[in-house]
Amino acid sequence: VPDITEDPRSVGFPPHHPPMRTLLGIPIKLGDRVLGDLYLTERATNTPFTEQDLESIAAVAAHAATAIERAELYEAVRLSRQQAEEQRDQLQSILDNLPSAVIIVTPPDGAIELANDSTTHLIFGDDAPAGIPLKSVRDYRLLDADGIPLPYDLRPSIRALHDLVVRNQQLLLERDDGRQIPILVQATPLHDAQGKVNRAVLVF
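Now predict its structure.
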């Protein structure tokens, strides 16, 4: 706009606003979405803006749109991670207050992702120290009702990770100290949005 005051779209300026005559404005757009505006007034040469000026500012606006998009994506990821951590902490709190041992495992070999307090007490006894690492929770053996070690592919965690449901299976859990504890096991596969098994939950 070579003269703002003569443009029919002009509504004037608030009191004490710096004087402006020429204007070059362009929207900062991401696709069809307008993120903001970028405008310049009063060239140092006191001459109107040119099409070349417009092209230059359009390039700046495109870079600004990319920067804003990245900032928004970063913030979305940060919030998503924060929400995920809060949900994980809430889940852990809920699980820790359950009387049954609950374990969440991941494929392919049933690595433990989450275990509650009842799990550590079951495996290590009621005097189990706090803060036992999850890898130590695997220090137990499962035996069938006759005391014979359960083959790897028949372990409830592995069966659940192969999309099978285990209900009320009677087994023996053998601790490192040799004590055998009768348990009843439930194991259920958990699926992602595509229907693929990405975790399994076990309840002893």
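The radius of gyration is 32 Å.
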